[in-house]
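Field: sequence (string)
Field: structure_tokens (string)

Example rows 1 and 2, in order.
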Amino acid sequence: EPHSALGAALKAAQLILAETGGRIISVGTGIPKIGLGAFKPKSEVELYGADKEKELWHPQDGWWTTFATECARAQISVELVMCPMNYCELVTLAQVCHLTSGKQHLFYNFAQDKDYWKLRNIFKRALTRESGYAGLIRVRTSRGVRVQEYNGHYLQLDPQDMDCAGLDEDTTFLVELQHDEKLPPDGHTYLQGAVLYTNRAGRRRIRVHTLRLSIAQALPNLFRHADLDATVAALARRTCVKAIKQGMPQAREQLTTSCVNILTAYRKHCATNPSPGQLILPEALKLLPVYCLGLIKGMGLKQGTDVRVDERIHELFELQGQRISYTLPYIYPKLFPIHNIPQHVGVLDQANGAYVLPQTEALSSERINTQGVYLLHDMPTGYIFIWIGDRVHEHVLDALFGVNNADLIQHGKWVEDNAKEKLKNIITQLRRNRPSSFDYVHVIRERRDNLEGLFLSRLIEDKHGNMHGYMDFLCQVHRMIQAKLN
């Protein structure tokens, strides 16, 4: 858009809200070309894949950073929806979302038939979710433990606090703790989180949560009660910060090293007479390596230049602030076989009001049968893929779609209108689980669809080009553990 004045539009909205604070939701189509906030973008072509690539991950200093700080200080949160045709240097534009605790959304080559409902859901969620404004968050600890670092989207005016222009139920923050004194044996340690904020009615409120934790006297107890979701989310956020500051190769290396350090500590202090040739995994964290591999092969950290720069930035931004319950399926998508749906699946569970989903399969081509039909819910790309093998029986297609020929099956609304009840219910539940989006149903016929390559690339346990498969990654981790122990 040659006459984009996104900066000027945001500045006008900021002036209107200057006295009261609030939230701005803005839609842009590209780099601002005129007026306030106009800037010359970095050269994506020259830098991407070159030695100076890390310059692409740093926002430009100037108007956008200054404006973001002004908004945050005035308690104005900004939510940005970008619908560009080309590179829009999201890393610079998204600063205003990062410092004001806002959200950013990216629609490359916006297509109404595919993206309309997702855009509608973004606005609906933004206007209806539980929200607060002018937030201040502080975490306090008992003696022997202290807060080392906060991580998330906020402005830090005081090292002890997170200043959040906006707060909502879809946002989380990471608090890293430092153990710096000996803790009393058989005692407890205490954490207290306090949030001061203004609710939608304009009333000032404070919420305080206090947590008492038992002190583990032995490392086996610590590993036994480890929280996989929190561990993976913490590693993901630390890796995102590393990627922005130093680059993707360094971030991938740090993530692998962190995984190795955790597993080395378990083998050294908890395993009983382990065989030198055996990789020992703690029960609570036995899936840690596959999630680390999922992060490494995701759009944010993936090797190569086939992922757009803005898409990388969008994923890194998303991982730093999303709900913990979203993180694992975001990193390792859910794959469901749907060619033989059990009787209880796709039926409403009266106890929790949710439709029962099928059992998942590992993300490996070895689990894909050409006589089957598979549904892959891929959160990062916003697709619900339905892959149809070229040897599927007609009765399977009829049971799922009401047709006996795969060529008659179409994308999007056709599936929603014509699919049989159980398949509709499965799709409905996947969308309900992620109310801030509306993932598009795309049908892939084996060897006949141009998005099949994207579907296959999301089979994380397979080897793709020079990227490790799961077994190769486990062997690499095992070798690094052995090297540390020796």
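Row 2 begins here:
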Amino acid sequence: KVFPDEQSLTNIDAEIEAMKKKITKIDEEIISSVSQQSRAGGKGEDELKKAKDSIKMLFSKIKEIREKAIESEKMVQEICKDIRDLDCAKQNLTTTITALTRLHNIVTQNGQLKLMAEKRQYKEV
């Protein structure tokens, strides 16, 4: 209790002055706190905006990478198809070369048989 009895009221002016000083000091502290909070809030908004912009940029890069991956996958599929086509062509060429070699052997042997038959070399045939 600030004023427990009537005698303590004699110092009322001094007490009022002390209370005014306390109020002024508290008002200054409130103003300072509000000002700091306002600056911090502004910084927080800036940081949040920067974070959102970074996230947008990250998503756009992810999208770009995904598109490039899809494009690369298509290219790989086309290359694999071309390799399969070339492998099939190689097998066809190998079969053709084998058939032509056998045909050549048959024609050569047929010519030798005719020559031996003309010379009547039946024993060697």
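free_text_note (row 2): The chain has a mean pLDDT of 88.
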